Hints:
The complex is a heterodimer of chains A (243) and B (355).
Chain A: E1 4-13, E2 20-30, E3 35-39, H1 46-53, E4 61-66, E5 69-70, H2 76-86, E6 87-90, H3 102-112, H4 119-129, H5 144-156, E7 162-166, H6 174-191, E8 194-199, E9 210-215, E10 218-219, E11 223-224, H7 233-241
Parallel strand pairs in A: 3-8, 3-9, 6-7, 7-8
Antiparallel strand pairs in A: 1-2, 1-4, 4-5, 9-10, 9-11
Helix pairs in contact in A: 5-6
Chain B: H1 2-10, H2 12-48, E1 54-58, E2 70-71, E3 82-94, E4 99-107, E5 119-120, E6 128-132, H3 134-137, E7 145-148, E8 154-161, E9 165-166, E10 169-175, H4 176-184, E11 194-195, E12 197-201, E13 214-218, H5 219-224, H6 229-261, H7 263-271, H8 276-307, H9 319-335, H10 338-346, H11 350-353
The structure holds adenosine-5'-diphosphate and magnesium ion (MG).
Magnesium ion (MG) binds at residues 46-47 of chain A.
Amino acid sequence: MAVLELHQVKKSFGSGHTKVEALKETDFLADRGELVAIIGPSGSGKSTFLTIVGGLLSPTSGDVIINGKNLTSLTEKARSQIRLKEIGFVLQASNLIPFLSVANQLKLLDKVKKGNMSKTERDQLYEDLGIADLLMKYPSDLSGGERQRVAIAKALYSNPSIILADEPTASLDSDRAYEVMELLKTVTKQKNTTTIVVTHDIRLVGYCDKVYKMTDGVLSSAIEKHIKRPQTVFEEKVAYTNH
Amino acid sequence: MFLAWQEIKRNKLRFTLITGILMLVSYLVFFLSGLATGLASLNREAVDKWKASAIILTEESDKSLYQSSMSIDQLKDIKAKKTAVIGQLNAIASNGDNKQNISLFGINKEEFLMPNVTEGRAFDKANEVIADDSLKDKGFKLGDTLSLSSSDQQLTIVGFTDHARFNASPVLYANLATFHQVKFGEAADQKKDQINGIVVKDDPILNMYKNNELDSIEIESFIQSLPGYTEQKLTLNFMIYFLFGISSIIVAIFLYVLTVQKISMFGVMKAQGISSTYLSWSVVAQTFILAFIGTALGFALTLVSGAFLPAAVPVSFDLALMVFYGLILMVVATCGAVFSVLTIVRIDPLKAIGG
Ligand SMILES: Nc1ncnc2c1ncn2[C@@H]1O[C@H](COP(=O)(O)OP(=O)(O)O)[C@@H](O)[C@H]1O
Ligand SMILES: [Mg+2]
């Protein structure tokens, strides 16, 4: 069974002549251990898609099914519980809580999720993400890449089945961006999560198992990717335009 | 609590500011309440000392002890468990060096108006008085001979009692004969049955007398009618209530500004599935922590500065009342968090994702 299924999901904003069809009728499936990229220009509907998948936004019509549970039929409270337990969000930089140390960012989740991660698991997570040395630091003391690593750690806390990342590399330079993608890829394989990365940055698609293209609210069909990492700008371009 | 406390620890300056404001407001509240208590006891402590339930005065006196005048014979019309007669006048007493407004109580030694003696002895003979010990601060002492403004009579202080001020004047207690001498001079003999009122202990206080010239007044109502008492109390209480309002508004504004600054952060947390309830409680808990620290500091500051006040300042701290006001202050300050809670509840986690 797929971890995530979308059936004929549609989203429009407004009505009449101001009506925007941000997401046209979409079907979508994703499995465990898959790193999926959704690329497309700004305003094409990527964030709309991601927020619907994350249960933050209700579709105008259609069904979103996460691990067999139909999000659209749940109350906001129940959806919030699913976000807490099944979904990890990685957002643009500055999504860390400024007044909490790295250790406390995670401790907060421990408190609201009522501690479903053991100390060994936690230490392992710190090791995996290379943040063990940053625990006492505050977000303002971290570099952009370090911040995103902490953000990914937060997303992974309590082992969600789905990780949703909206432009996770937007505020990073290329090297840091590749690092973060590398990390997301490792994590996806290691923790066997379904990871969806939304971006307008085509350089990142090389890390992903599947790439979808979003154009004016239309999601193109999946393209299997096997290229490890685009080496040159030329290659990247080819990799993107070929499909 | 965790989130609330971590934020306070990390942003010490801004939270010290708001705690400081709360401390000053609570300091003012405690001080005003101390002043209210002090001024009140200045007026009423001699009456409180009676531990009586009512006082019977003439109807036409309009609850004024000084204006009431009746015959001691009227005692027979009163059916209360315990009665005590009282004569009262105001005068200026002088021991040669010092002058002071006093209130003279003429009483029967064996009745319950007789005060406790903390120094010296009780009065035995004519012209002997027990004085309120606040007179000691004014330069009066045991054995002093007092001359009174309205009389040729000379009184001697033979003893002191404590907590005996009536309508802001220290009380001198003497027997009825002495009182009559002071009040009527030559005519004392013809007027020896004249008293101002009868203090009674009984409940209920209804139907204690069968005489329509008399009126029984509950002690609390008698105190409220003391000149200036109610006005003073209302003024000070009004200021205190006003301060409650102010502290609530200050906290509300301050927190609201802080909350608005953190909207996107709250949005991110909500997107991650942290509930509005958790975040709201966190803000409420934070406010409560600040209100608690501020009020506790204000409390301590009040007691410390109270210890250094000159005795002449009529401040007296009623700890139970202060604790009560402190709790009210914490509650109203915490109510100031309500706008922030409303803001948090309305934050759309979607906004956090945008990009
Ligand atoms: N809350 C909203 N109200 C109205 N229009 C919206 C809203 N959110 C998004 N849109 C519109 O939907 C389209 C897709 O937006 P979005 O999903 O944010 O694109 P992307 O993330 O790819 O940049 C855009 O035209 C945007 O203006
Ligand atoms: Mg977007």
